[in-house]
């Protein structure tokens, strides 16, 4: 009995409570074991896994269905001497894996790391004896029916190489797999309701394009061309040898496809009579992260690479393979032919690339168009994905190209695993909304919408029972156990079945089902065009030298690009720096100018205020002085009268003092009664006089004080008067001076006038003499007309007379005039 280790800490593993039952199942897997049939029995037990329906809303929360299918041992495997009991089916939902001796798992467990026994549960487990029909009935059929009712579906097989994935999907001619059976259900369902015209074709992700007559013709040609490939091959094949070993692709005879028609299409909901249906299929593969159309004829030249297709997204983010060939098929036989052609291309490409089988993920897609009247009311898609084997490169001893393939395969499966794990984790409230790396591989990117609720996914895990691949199988099981925990949230039908968009022959939107944001779509597509399709090509088939050359070329391009970017960046930075500096300088200049202006204005204001204060102070001081003068001003008469009063009082006071002194000198005893009486009177007088004196003294003091004050005022007034007198005197003196000066100047002026008069007189005399001389000359010229004298002017004559040695009166006069030059210039007023 195997030791059961506590596995509760491993999320992917469930512990079976009944160890004995497990033991018995374990035995049941051994060949020749009496319980052998039990596996088959177990595997046929149908189990409806917790499909819960949220009653509050129509949203369905359904666990991802994960089915396990165990492949029977092949003859060779049975013949070889290896452990046959490592896979034990406990019941229809759980399986136990017992590490065989020599496996890495066993070695680790012997070292105390990990366990040797693992148990996993599935939606349903199908043993090695399960027929294709049973498997289909219990797994995919319901999903195909849902698909016919409008639910998108994705079915993918996962497992190590040689585990039976392709067999499960495609099957053999005698025992077809889930795909032909699904096709059969579909065509049975749409029987008699087929839309024969080819003018409605799938477009982008889930839209439809209306084709014009020419395009329809073209589509027919494409279909014929694709089918002709198969015909050629069949012809060649039949010519070459009818006895050659039958390969899968060549042995399928569509007319002979026979399997249990267990599909009961009558249980499908039946408003279908009102509708017509069109089926379009495509077949493509993802190899080394490149998408290739398997219906595209392969290039004739060996070295020529296949052209890769691009994965794009439509305006709402649904991924689709651009330029993928969609073929309109009218029967399951036609669909089969398409599958066969794809298989042929796949295997041919494998041969060309020196590949082993299934190094790629192949996807057979079926689009069902439901046409109601003239409208396409629904487009649903069923994809069957045959994933590449998940073996590890170390195990399969892969190198070079195979290593790269394995890396890519493992990578895309790893991303698939990551997505599934992330989806599972997102279910917990704690980590809701976590990142799911759908975009990290083409595979997950293409099926993102399905995982996100736009359809239902289903996983078929294929395993063989070989001890040699135990470790890989364990890995697959762990992966699938995680997948099983993913709960798919499928929105209510009303939301899910949003009518597709219909576009015209040139992809232009037709307003059948609302407005299409064509611009956005166009811009998206044109953006896509920017990328070089050449980059997407599969370069792995080129020779190493060419690849190195390409790498070098790319490196150079990269370097040049980087350099260009760097230069551009530096230039931009410099420009920005300069601009900023300029801006800073300008703003600084502006600020300093503003500051200077501000300073100036403040200074001006301050000066104005200062001046105002100064003026106000002056005014105030002047006013104060005036007030004081006014207050202290006493008219002179009053002052003199007061002075006289004071003098009078002084006299009276001295008299009184004298009398008092004389009285004090006289003795009282010696006085007579009269005298005594007089004395008493005098004493009274004296007291009164003293009092009066006292009063007068006080008055005197007050007067003296007043006099002192008045004296001061008088002194200041006298001083002021003196100052004024001085000023007046000074002014008078200066006036006198000016007057004297004026007088002197007037005297000089009269003198000059006199001189001028004298000069005028002299001038008149000279004029008179000149006229006399002129007359004399005239007379002389009359007297001696022959004797001609050189005619001279008045000025020449004057000169002559002046310079003549015979000095006349004129010469002397001129001399005297010269000696006393006339100066009319007045002396300035001082
Ligand atoms: N359930 C089954 N019953 C009988 N034979 C099976 C079954 N499953 C697989 N086989 C056989 O096992 C072999 C390998 O199967 P298949 O080619 O489908 O494996 P695979 O997982 O697709 O491998 P690869 O990943 O390398 O393509 C085939 O010969 C197939 O006929």
Radius of gyration: 68 Å
- Going by CATH, the architecture of the largest domain would be 3-Layer(aba) Sandwich
Report the span from N to C terminus: 150 Å
Uncertain segments are 1-57, 237-270, 351-356, 392-399, 510-517, 520-537, 787-791, 804-830
User: Any idea of the CATH class of the largest domain?
Assistant: Alpha Beta
DSSP summary: helix tally: 23
CATH superfamily of the largest domain: Kinesin motor domain
What's the pLDDT, averaged over the residues? Answer: 74
How much of the residues is beta strand, in percent? 5-15%
Total number of beta strands: 21
List of distinct ligands in this structure? adenosine-5'-triphosphate
Can you describe this structure?
The chain is of the alpha+beta class and about 850 residues long. It has three domains: about 500 residues, Kinesin motor domain (Kinesin); about 45 residues; about 90 residues. It has 23 helices and 21 strands. Strands 3, 7, 8, 11, 12, 15, 16, 17 and 18 form a nine-stranded mixed β-sheet that branches. It is elongated, with a radius of gyration of 68 Å. It starts with 18 loop residues before the first helix and ends in an 11-residue tail after the last helix. Adenosine-5'-triphosphate binds next to helix 7. GO terms for molecular function: ATP binding; microtubule binding; plus-end-directed microtubule motor activity.
Keywords:
single chain, alpha+beta, Kinesin, 3 domains, four-stranded mixed beta sheet, 23 helices, elongated, disordered N terminus, binds adenosine-5'-triphosphate, Kinesin_motor_dom, coiled coil, ATP-binding
